[in-house]
Design brief:
Elements: H1 2-42, H2 49-63, H3 87-101
Helix pairs in contact: 1-2
Amino acid sequence: MRRRVRNLVFIVPAAILGIILFMAIGGELVKLLWNWLTPALFGWRQITFWQAIALLALCRILFGRSGFGRGGRPWRRGRGGWSPMTPEEREKWRETLRERWIARQPPRDSSVNP
């Protein structure tokens, strides 16, 4: 228990410092890129550091993850894909997909010559 508390004493400040450092570097990078590209390309005005931080926060809200750490593949989350499914469950899933996404062709009239 003591070792755990001792580890937290070092990990928590390091994590807070890392978040602050990430925000500072990210904000400065966004500001530099924005101020370099947008005035020349579009004639827009330059932004401040705090506006760049707000832009990063807005992008995070709109687009989700920051791109680091856990990879995002929402269609692979959950039960782990095909491997835990039984063959019957797989066939049921395929049928569901066929019903939803594959356009059904009208039945052929046998009286009409092909």
